[in-house]
């Protein structure tokens, strides 16, 4: 019992007060919006709660966040299918989820000073960044025609979402602090997408609130990773 109490005490102290507040507020907004606008799609609620929890772990550089991201991608792919957002479905099931698995492996293989709860922050060169942008452009061009073929709803923002998602998953795999900014950009695109969807079905407002919470967490994640980068460099 003493060991269990000690483990709980260490876990409670793992997150800062501001991180606990950010997570609690995010969860509260998600729950309230679900109760007001949805009250039926429990898969959406589950995905939102798992997603926002993964982000607070990602902000700490903890690989557990990537494991939760795999689960979120599966659930979000199903949600996207319900509104014919085939781009989101294909992107998350065919790209984000597999890359989250690769990122999980990469983060576990690169712990900071042997601490598996914190990944070693990495930096990519300008040359690699250039190749990344070329890859993003190629993926975007291919997906545009694929999504057009499947008559994806709101084609243009759906295509832009592919671009931001590619950049985000690549930077996550490479352990760059900029992955959080790429995900924040993706959050903004998804807020637009699901706002358009909510104009036809009010239930999707809860998804809009979800990605608004994700945006706040991703901005914090970038700040947290910059602090990690400086701390690790000084050590």
From TrEMBL:
GO terms for molecular function: nicotinamide riboside transmembrane transporter activity. It is found in: Cell membrane. InterPro entries: NMN_transpt_PnuC. PANTHER family: NICOTINAMIDE RIBOSIDE TRANSPORTER PNUC. The chain crosses the membrane at residues 21-36, 42-59, 66-84, 90-108, 129-149, 155-173, 178-196, 202-223. GO terms for cellular component: plasma membrane. It is a multi-pass membrane protein. It comes from the Bacteria. Keywords: Cell membrane, Membrane, Transmembrane, Transmembrane helix, Transport. The keyword Cell membrane applies. Its main location: membrane. This is Nicotinamide riboside transporter PnuC. It holds the Pfam family NMN_transporter. Belongs to the nicotinamide ribonucleoside (NR) uptake permease (TC 4.B.1) family. The keyword Plastid does not apply.
């Amino acid at each position: 019992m003493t060991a269990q109490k000690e483990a709980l005490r260490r876990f409670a102290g793992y997150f800062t007060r501001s991180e606990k507040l950010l997570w609690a507020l995010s969860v509260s907004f998600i729950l309230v919006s679900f109760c007001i606008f949805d009250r039926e799609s429990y898969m959406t609620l589950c995905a939102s709660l798992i997603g926002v929890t993964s982000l607070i772990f990602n902000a700490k550089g903890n690989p557990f966040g990537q494991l939760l991201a795999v689960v979120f991608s599966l659930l979000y792919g199903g949600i996207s299918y319900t509104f014919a957002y085939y781009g989101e479905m294909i992107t998350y099931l065919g790209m984000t989820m597999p890359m989250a698995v690769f990122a999980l492996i990469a983060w576990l293989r690169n712990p900071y000073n042997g601490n598996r709860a914190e990944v070693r922050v990495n930096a990519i060169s300008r040359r690699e960044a250039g190749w990344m942008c070329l890859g993003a452009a190629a993926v975007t061009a291919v997906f545009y025609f694929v999504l057009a073929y499947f008559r994806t709803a709101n084609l243009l923002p759906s295509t832009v979402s592919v671009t931001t998602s590619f950049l985000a998953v690549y930077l996550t795999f490479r352990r760059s602090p900029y992955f959080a900014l790429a995900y924040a950009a993706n959050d903004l695109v998804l807020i637009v997408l699901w706002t358009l969807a909510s104009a036809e079905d009010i239930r999707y407002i809860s998804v809009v609130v979800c990605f608004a919470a994700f945006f706040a967490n991703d901005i914090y994640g970038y700040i947290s990773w910059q602090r990690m980068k400086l701390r690790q460099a000084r050590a």
